[in-house]
Design goal:
The chain is mostly helical and 77 residues long. Helices cover 78% and strands 0% of the residues. It contains 3 helices and no strands.
């Protein structure tokens, strides 16, 4: 019975601690997405020949960001 009570109290404390940390993270201000996209484009990472899957995903995101930026520039007169 003591072990069960200890387990329940431990899990409750863990739940409260995680809930408290997630509310702190949500209250922080986040930088705009456009600013982080520009930083990612200006500082490319070196390509590893052994990490071809990650490189293809990174390249896909770069192209998506470029298309998004060109659409935004096209909408502004």
């Amino acid at each position: 019975m003591k072990m069960f009570l200890l387990l329940v109290l431990s899990l409750t404390a863990l739940f409260v601690w995680q809930r408290h940390n997630s509310s702190d993270a949500a209250s922080e201000t986040k930088p705009p997405i456009a600013a982080t996209a520009v930083v990612a484009v200006t500082t490319p990472r070196p390509v590893s020949e052994h990490n071809w899957a990650k490189h293809s995903l990174d390249r896909t995101h770069e192209v998506m960001d470029q298309a998004h930026q060109s659409r935004q520039q096209g909408e502004q007169p």
